[in-house]
Batch of 3 targets.
Target 1
Amino acid sequence: MGYLGEKASKFAHQYVIESPLVKNFLSRCDRTSEKTPEKIDQKNFVVDIDSIKSEISNELNRVVTVDAGYQEIILDDSYPTNRLCYYSIGILCFSVKDLDNLEEQHTINPNDVGRLKNIDRFHFVLPVQNIKLKQKDFITTIRETIYQSFKDNKLGGETEDSSNSLLNTIKWLIFKSYANGDGSIEIRCPSCGHSSQFKNKTNFYADSKNDFTDCDCGERIYITDCFQMYDLIDEINGSGPIISYVMSAFEVVLIFTLIRYALENNSKWLSETLFIKDGSLALFSKLDDFSYKVIRPFLQFMYEKSKNEKTSYINLIGLEKSGMFMEHLRNTEATINENTILTPSIDYIKKFITGDNKTNFGERTYFGIKSFVKKNKDLAFVLDISIPFGTNAQYGKYIENPNINDCLNIQNILQLLFKLKCNMYDKSFIPIAILNKLVSLSSVPGKKILTMFTKDELL
């Protein structure tokens, strides 16, 4: 490898080309085709979009999108370094009528943003290395910071009623307050390792007494310790490994805070709203317990409620921009017919995308199922759809052969997505493109400004 900034040789490649060893090796190789799906592999999973008959059909009049960005800054170049990470998470909400009044997007400009109103932002900061709360060790600092970030951020801003906090949504989901209220979760003490069942201590889940419990060893356990991110950090290496996981957890809880608010206030707009998450419907690494033990049961409960009341209450999707499924789509897009949706079986996923792993893909991490959608030559994308089954089904069993027709209101969701197409980026959508502009923290000048701000505040 060359030095930083050193230019590579313009003629060294000729020695590689002329090498007998290289030529001999290539002569013994052959291109493989086993991992290239053909139409025969896809025929059992492809459905013509126009033929889909949604069991429940709700007109979607509103779009809510959640996206986030973060910027890590280094305060000095000396060793050991002092690092912090700033987060910016946003919600964009607009009516379909607003969208109809806009011309097709070729660029994103302030006038468009102004017309697509109801933008809300949330901000917090996480110590990464060699910065901690006064009189606290580093791991306790991170745990308290995560707890406080979910507690302090709430719908409507800092001055709003604390009942709208993201922390209350975590408790609402864990305690199953949307149903019979008998939910709980096992949380391991970060100090002694003893596990305790975290249950609702009062008649009302939002009571602050439910924010924490005390272990027998004397350590205070916060309900946000359910994310178990403290397992990935230490005093020496800092919290770098959890930076993206903190953002993912915040994004997901923010979406469900909106849903909780609508349910608790008997709002009719829930069934008329398409919720879009930038990225997959999943929580990875240590967050997987929260995904399959907390979020999935809620979505399964709401699926049954939707079927019983013949109203699609949860219209939740994820749109992926990168990853192995996106790469697979790029490689196979030409083999997929226009105006079709392909919902792959687990065998297809193992054969052509992830490899033959011992466990089923997403069995612990996902709360949605994967599909490949191709509208035409200009629009094809990876779509995650909220899990389409009730409390009697298991995720690992269902994704063996998922059925797109099980997804409630899927036809209306697809038609709205086609309308949301944005020409600014390849395979992009208007709300995500706009919101990404609003929450992304730039390296220049944003990073420099945050660095100067932090130095001033820490003096």
Note: Residues 62-448 form one domain.
Target 2
Amino acid sequence: MRIGLLTSGGDCPGLNAVIRSTVLHGVKSYGDEFLGLRGGWRGLIEADYTELTRHDVRGIAREGGTILGTSRTHPYNHPGGGPEGIARQMKRHGIDAVIAIGGEGTLAGAKRLADDGLPIVGVPKTIDNDLKATDYTFGFDTAISIATDAMDRLRTTGESHHRCMVAEVMGRHVGWIALHSGMAAGAHAILIPEQKVDVDQICEWVDQVHSRGRSPLVVVAEGFIPEGAEEALAAKGQEADGRPRLGGIGEFITAQIEERTGVETRNTTLGHIQRGGNPTGYDRVLATRFGMKALDLAHEAAWGHMASLRGTEIVKVDLSEAIDGLKEVPAERYEEAKILFGR
């Protein structure tokens, strides 16, 4: 088979490990040929590609980002896109199948194209861990490790100055990064999009910790909406695709804590640091296994399906399961963490 690989949407540690394992497995096990499609769906639509050999993927599993580049190009809205246009390009360049590596938006596009008759399978990726139908996505563990390390550093400077430290992490709609990194760092309050919390309650947690001579650490996801507010803060305008560019909730919480408690408070926004750098060992292994499974799915002609982690096994699931809403933090998981807040 001649297979096209693309990475679409936000970048993520582990993408290169998927590319590597797919190419190596295909070449060694099936005698496949591979094309790397540059810039996500755009590369497929515009036939912007590069040949991928064993030599091209040597040693890339440890590297962050993606050697193919990425974009948020929509496979149906881009000029020349849609099933007919993409099918023509695939036929013209001898592409027998496409493996699309991406998050909810990418996989929704892959599902739609597969339903329209194109030979496409998927690989789930997102640092937010918000995709259904898989227990974990690669990139999440790396983001947690980076955020936890940053919070450990914030706590040392906070304790030196007897300050409250606020750490804003990624999480537009779900709070998995905030929950896991906050618990790992021993945060005294964790604020996530799924749970509205009154500012007075946040300040009470801070006061409880500060009164014991400790320096409070508050972790807040960028999409957190305080009790009484209607929507997440988006002080930085809009993304190119029209979505609000979230940011500013950490500064808001910082100002409220300092004003209401009198405790000196500082804010740090981790931002894209969470996306960058080399993937953890866990993410490299998970991404490698996903890539190998996706290649097998292509040879099974399991179009419209993706690789998924269930327990410790990599299995096949229908893409419709993955894009059926977001995987939110369950209320019981937040209540579990909440036991450790304040006091």
Note: Residues 140-161 form the longest helix (22 residues).
Target 3
Amino acid sequence: MVAHADLDTVRSAAKEFIETISAELRELSLQLHAHPEEGFNEYFAHRLITEYLARKPHIHVAPSKDKTMVTAFVATFDHSASSAGGASYGQDAMTTIGFCSEYDALPMGHACGHNLIAISGIGAFLAATHLAEHFDLPVRLKLFGTPGEEGKGGKINMINAGDFADVDFAMMLHPGNIDLAYPTYLASMHIDVEYFGKEAHAASSPWDGVNALDAVVTAFNAIAHLRQQILPTDRIHGVITHGGAAPNIIPAYTRAEVMVRSERQDHLQENLFPRVMACLESGAAAAGCTMKSGTEPMYADVVTNVPMTDVYARELLVQIGVDVGDPHEQRSVSRGSTDMGNVCYVAEIHSEEFLAHAKTQEAHDKTLQRVACLVMVAYSLMTDADLRSRARAEFAKVPKPTHDAPAA
């Protein structure tokens, strides 16, 4: 056993271990990239990853508690220190640290780099298990296989099922074209809306029709006016996915998708979402149509845990010379939305160029460099009682939602 090792020794141990599994992770990444599967249909990815983990010693792989989530999994590693290590590091009870892996693809393939997210979670999890055994640290480590991040909110289902219930700290990496440690990810809601009118010939008898296109256009115009009175950090954007069949036929049916985002989920739920719904309803009322709407699960905003993130930022600088810069500047730019934000509460990608880059050796190497930094956050949580205390205090300051997301 190596007790109270200095950080350089720990870094070396982590890097050496990651190098031993690099080829295995590279093969996993390439297999995922070559077999892209959209959300909740990641059967190949699920089988590939769980079979790989099952071959590792002392790791138990189980399905999600949500039995409908057949492509989700939870891998667990328990290590009870053989010495008095737990007391030495101030642990009254075993700390549980979680990592997340995503592996769903976009329709165009892995243009969001989820093949890299998958191996970064696996790599950090396995490296953390190695450090726990090598340095004899009491800890429970979990790897969450989280399907359907791209708009379907797989992590939300896993949270609701209780998969994350006993996790003290959770983290993940996301590939991009810049290094960030303190990003802003907005809370978001996705609204599907349909308008139903009455078809008529636009030239011979337009008065017999009820124009569903008028309804959706009026709704979008109302949203355009609403944008003048919303916060600079709010976002509303959408598309008309069905606008009618022919120019000489008054459309009886139209459909649109609208995304609504805000810095905080409470503002989104209580203020912005109801105002957008009023705009959509105004279109139906103005055109005399009926309306049907529905929402996907709400993605919460990502709350960066500063004490933990400071450790990651330090490791980026020490290990690979990357200075992430001023946290306030990083937070000033929105990076989109993710269901990792929901876990916090309990980059120019999506392109053909990023799709091609996600399978390169360069992307793999850079991912594992950052895995070596992330695993040091886990090590610090295992060994530093003060860091655990400060991280929990930071989490306690986050306002928790007082009610469920509104239903449309």
Note: The radius of gyration is 24 Å.
